Task: inverse folding
C-alpha cells in the first residue's frame, strides 16, 4: 500500500520560521491516525493544532488516542535539500483489531510559539484514496516515512 505525499498545513508554514520554529525540534513529534470521516482543512483558516482534529481512532487494541511518538527524528540538509524524517512507527494490535483508518497527522506534542500541539501536516494512508483496513490482533501496523523524508524543502 502506498500513501500519498504529505500536505502541509498553511499555518504550519508560519510556525516554521519563527524563533523556536517547529522543525528546529527533534523531540515530541507524534503521529495520530484518523478515520475517513475526518475532513482535512489545510487552508489559511484551517486546522492548526491537535485540538482542531476530529475522528481520531479511540484508545483500544494497541492504539492510544494522541498517537505514537516518532523516534530518531532528524532534520538534515544535503545538496541544498532539507529533509525532516524519523524512524518507522509501529503499532501492534492486541486484544482485538486496530480499526480502519484513512489519514495520518503529524504534530508536535508540546507548545510552540504559544500554539498548543501545532500540526505539521497530514497524509492519506492509501492514495487511492481508500481506508487502510483494520489491523487484526497479533499483527503490526507500520508507518515508514518515504525515503525522501516526511517533509523535504528545496
Result:
Amino acid at each position: 500500500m502506498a500513501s500519498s505525499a504529505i500536505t502541509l498545513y498553511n499555518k504550519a508554514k508560519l510556525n516554521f520560521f519563527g524563533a523556536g520554529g517547529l522543525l528546529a525540534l527533534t523531540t515530541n513529534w507524534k503521529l495520530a491516525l484518523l478515520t475517513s470521516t475526518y475532513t482535512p482543512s489545510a487552508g489559511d483558516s484551517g486546522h492548526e493544532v491537535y485540538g482542531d482534529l476530529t475522528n481520531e481512532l479511540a484508545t483500544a487494541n494497541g492504539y492510544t488516542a494522541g498517537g505514537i511518538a516518532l523516534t530518531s527524528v532528524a532534520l538534515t540538509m544535503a545538496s541544498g535539500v532539507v529533509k525532516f524524517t524519523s524512524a518507522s512507527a509501529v503499532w501492534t494490535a492486541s486484544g482485538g483489531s486496530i480499526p480502519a483508518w484513512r489519514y495520518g497527522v503529524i504534530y508536535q506534542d508540546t507548545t510552540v510559539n504559544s500554539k498548543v500541539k501545532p500540526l505539521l501536516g497530514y497524509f492519506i494512508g492509501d492514495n487511492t484514496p481508500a481506508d487502510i483496513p483494520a489491523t487484526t490482533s497479533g499483527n503490526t501496523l507500520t508507518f515508514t516515512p518515504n525515503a525522501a523524508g516526511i517533509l523535504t524543502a528545496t
Notes: Helices lie at 10-16. The chain has a mean pLDDT of 89. The CA atoms of residues 38 and 55 lie 6 Å apart. Residues 7-153 form one domain.
